[in-house]
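Journal club prep, notes for RB
We'll compare a predicted complex against what the paper describes. Inputs for the zinc ion case:
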Amino acid sequence: MHHPPSDAEARRAVAPVICYPTGTLPRPDLNLYRKARESARQVASLRIPPRDARAFEVPKGHFFRISCPDGSQVGDLNLFSAADPGERFYSGKTRALHGTHLSTGARMWSGFPWLRPMATIVSDSLDWYGADAHGGRVHDVIGTRCDPYTHHLLTGGQYHLCCHSNLTRALDDAGFAPDRAEAMVHDVLNVFMCTGFTADTGQYFMKASPARAGDFIEFFAEIDLLGVLSACPGGDCGAEHSSDAAKCHALCIEVFAPADGALEGWSPPQANGYDRSHGLSRRD
Ligand SMILES: [Zn+2]
């Protein structure tokens, strides 16, 4: 342990600066989305069995709703561009832009070089939760996904129904070769999961999700999407994951198409405008 300098408290008292002020971030027109959603009709629905995952497609300009119709259940969501699955959700940059947990108005951003909104959250029945006394919030972009490798590292066990494996099987079922399917799985949006970091040690914690049967979160698809969603083996993640111990429920995905003309004025976001030269020519 090193000795603190004499001005340690003054150094700790320096005010934080927001890394990425979002004042210049392109804003979604939530009023337009809300009106379009009112006109929308359901065109698809899919049930995801407990401890399993399914792939689904959402055309751009459509809405999709994730719900837990039977009881509290955490879901692990991956998103890809349906046109090019190389473009996928970038949890880390989404966190840097919107914070550790997402709710209405936040967007799910894709990775480089695209860095554009893939989906915008338009409604969240858990938006009342806010932050609890432990610093817990809902719908995190900090927790990666439960996986059999970390489980093996910590316990030596073999468990095959972690979200990482569930998502791998769903992508395999969607037609991607097994080795490619696993490599496609990426850090998730933890839908309905209540998480935070402990104040004393800074460790990632989870607690029972406040979601009840019927809770939902709804998204607007900014581009053509391929999604995969896993019903986490942790159930409400109130005790443990990576096992068959927790009571688990199904999740539901519904897709809604807006009425013709309801999105007038909206257009899908373009790929990021950075020229991708990276200063390489300066080295000549
Ligand atoms: Zn999980």
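Talking point for the session: The chain has one domain: 40-259.
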